[in-house]
Amino acid sequence: MPVLLLSRGVPEKTVAGARKCGFDVIILPAADGMDAPVASHPDMTLCAGFGRLFVRKAHMNDAAFSEAVSDALRAAAPLSLTVTDDLPSACYPDDVKFNCFTLCGCLFGKLSAVSPHILAAAAAYRVTPVNVAQGYAKCSSCVLGDRAVITSDTSIYRAVKSHGGDAYLIGSGNITLPGYGGGNDGFIGGASFFAGGTLYFLGDVDFHPDCGIIKEAAARHGVAVVSLSDENLFDSGCLYLE
Known about the structure:
Layout: E1 3-7, H1 12-20, E2 24-28, H2 42-45, E3 46-49, E4 52-56, H3 57-60, H4 63-75, E5 80-84, E6 101-103, E7 106-109, H5 116-124, E8 128-131, E9 141-144, E10 148-151, H6 154-162, E11 166-169, E12 192-195, E13 198-201, H7 211-220, E14 224-227, E15 239-241
Parallel strand pairs: 1-2, 4-5, 7-8, 10-11, 13-14
Antiparallel strand pairs: 1-15, 3-4, 6-7, 9-10, 12-13
């Protein structure tokens, strides 16, 4: 069964919607040393890529966190575990060691902050590292398969286009993210995931002011769009494993 890792506090309607779609939902506990509002966000504490699931050693020392990771790996058997010596941090940019993504044969992220273990894995797979100004690269990027991205970040938009991918620019905000400012400054990547040719949203994509751009981008790439609930989009830092 495909695994969907979500953060604490994600609305129950969204969790129920994901399970109805056939996902094994695992709620990640808060990880020590990370900023409290995002301490249980999978895209801040884990990274999936190159046949591996990367996780900090400090977080695997916590029994609850380790158990959640082990449960995820049992369901997503092809992935191997890589435990790194990266230290947790509540401060930017040291908190974004795992916040990167692959597209068009490239690894996009703030390279000065990305974990050297991930960079080494990318090199072994001959994946080209591409620097972007946005440290929260994975959070900021709604990835459509292996050739396109939807983002509110101009540095990611330009970088993807310059490396042969399609990029679609939307406005920022209008996504629930408790704990910061007005609580509505979440990222599109943390509120969505791509699985099996479908783009899933944590909440109802029609609530986003740029839902037209999002749906048009998906249609151009033959991607179906599914909203997992009838509520506002919620940034859970979700991570899909298969």
